[in-house]
Description:
Chain A is mainly beta. Chain A is built from one helix and eight strands.
Amino acid sequence: MPGADPGVDPTAAILDGYRRGELLCQRCEACARAQFYPRILCRHCGSQRLRLEPSSGRGTLYSFTRVERGPTRDWPVPYTLALVDLDEGFRLLVTLEVPESSEPAIGQPVRIVFDQATPRAHLTDEV
Amino acid sequence: MSAILSGVADTRVGRLEGASVLGLHAQAARDALADAGLCKDFIDGLLCAYSLAEPYPMLSSVVAEYLGIEPAFATSIHAGGASACIAIQQAALLVESGVCRHVLIAMGDRRLTGMPSGAAVTALAAFGHPHFEQPHGITIPAAYALVAQRYMHEHGTRLEELAAVAVTTRRHAGRHPNAHLTEPLTLDDVAHSRVIASPLRLLDCCPISDGAGAVVVSSSETREDLRRPGIRLLGAGQRHTHEHVLALPELDRLGCGPAARQAFERAGVSPAEIDVAEIYDSFTITLIVELEAMGFFGRGEAGAAALDGALELDGALPCNTHGGLLSFGHPGAVGGLYHVIEAVRQLRGEAGERQVPGAELAFVHGDGGVLSAHASLVLGRVA
């Protein structure tokens, strides 16, 4: 019996979306849950009936940290990393733009904005 | 009958200029065998981990080659800080099933003097997801800082309480001849150390060190051959939930809780009966999260307890009595093995100035990744 073919890895479609300035997640058609990062199966129920879905880019701040020491000595610092829970029900790790004399707060609304094919979180006043 | 931890050894930890990773493995192995009263020909199982400074693809085979042994079971375990406790569990399964009689566990690395400055931090950042974390500049301290920030928000843990963990473990390390960092610390020292990734400051983070260690796990059938009554593995547990910080479960669903519960259940003891605990402490926050999840302190209470001296030798739960990763040192996977070694010494009554009087039951915990892989052990003295 021939081996099952998982097809083209869905990571490429997500990264292509980034290049277009579009945030996509996967939605499982069997259990309706969202997942990120994309996989060849649903991590919740195991189904392979998955579709890509555009995200509104709106979410809330789950956590953040101001990093003073990057992964390499020449990595520009400081920068703020954040875990963001998107409204569609998935989570991203991104950098967070923090305006001068502003302090982020867990639970604060954020939106994802693309900058050079990279998603970044911006604080927003929108509820 | 439960497996016996029959021999232990550690090298000095810190700056070991001129040593080689294999030489360090071999020194610890040799010393652990001598501690057990065994010659190397008795070893029929070998468990190693991995090295960043000298990354052999098949490290356990290389160590067997270096030592001149031909084990009937050998492999390398890649589970970050959980590797050591997982290795103890694997070794116990091997001797309890009769596959092996004596399993040697040997781990070590030279992340301080064996790699260019900063290279270890860069190599460790590779634990992050290549597409969805690394491009954003994830580092291990940043990942734990994200956990710390959220944990403090949910549980009210304060920075001063994190600092208390660092101060206590440094005090313990001051009593250990092999420890990397022994200069006493104050809460102010920790508070004023530079921020690495908020809220974690330099002294909330363990150092990068050179060092190796080894443990021999023997079948209880061989106890007549051994130099001294060994320490028994009474119970063990594991739980794995994820790898990357972007997949972190809710903080009340981390794997340390189930792993510890399984170990306590199998040993037939409760957290309150533990005399001494050696718990993975890559960062001050790691210890606080684990102590609460595993039932040693209530939610939001471990930090205050640390500030109150609960983790000191005369406290309610003497913890990381060798100085933990935070001060004894962290060369890599062997960091978790040092917790096992210290537990064995405490139960044998060989901990010198660090001795918890009358210690009979010890708990050891290893955490790999970002609170991703958890393995717990309950150890006790042989009756």
